[in-house]
Amino acid sequence: VVRKNSMRQTRTAHFAFSAAAVAMSRVAEVHAECPLSFKPLFQGPVAILVDSSGKRLSPHFYRLDAAEEFLARAGSGNGNGQALCPFTQREIAGVKAVPSLLDDPKGWFRACDADGDRKLSREEVVSALKAQLPLDNRAIDRFRTEEAAWRSWDADGSGFIEYVEVMDESKGLLKFVRDSFLRSSEDGVVPDLRKDREAWFRYWDEDNSGVLEFEEVLRAFAKSFHIDLAGVEALRESLQAVWGIFDSDNSGAVDRREFMLPYDGLADTVLATMT
């Protein structure tokens, strides 16, 4: 009975962590950030998680340092010493650095080919470009949905990009990356939450909805206070413990008033757990 309960608790924990990881990845992918640390992917070496055969465990990209730390911490915290992919719950055999498209196009292509079919889908291409290069995220995202934009790379109209199309010197993906969409790598200055809560809330409320969802709040605190991977996990637990008090309708979001209320708002409550 004890063993069954232990197995059931383990499965429940794995499911909960996987669901949290998926939620984190949605927010992080929009901003081309690591789903583990919320740090910009392109500012550091990028990596993927692989199984014992060297194949990718999921289509996600990570900061190399965050992936290595996750592998070490997850493995040591697991009873059998095995670390599991946060998205697929399959065993991680290792962390593999992704070569640069500019320096090693063939190695980059192989690493980004998540399903091993020797061609890249729109999702694989856009995610990989956003992960490694300082691109205009909104501009590059249009290649997911706009047929005309995608066809500028997909010369044969197959719906996929093959290696020869990457290397096409006249209009290939590699030429496009070299010539287009460079953005500034400088992030805007984040307002100080303790000094100007209104400005801080507006800064992170990127869609001007007047509310912040759970993962948006988690990301905002992590980036504002430069919290490391272990700290992000601890912050998630603290935030989950108090979230229901402020999200009374279970909408998954808190509004400006609930967040900024002096002493009793979510901002002060979370800050108190960080001191």
UniProtKB/TrEMBL annotation:
Transmembrane parts of this sequence: none
UniProt-recorded Gene Ontology molecular function terms: calcium ion binding
Record's keyword terms, sorted: Calcium, Metal-binding, Repeat
Record InterPro entries: Ca-bind, EF-hand-dom_pair, EF_Hand_1_Ca_BS, EF_hand_dom
Keyword Calcium attached: yes
Protein name: EF-hand domain-containing protein
SMART domains given in the database record: EFh
Residue span(s) of domain EF-hand: 100-135, 192-227
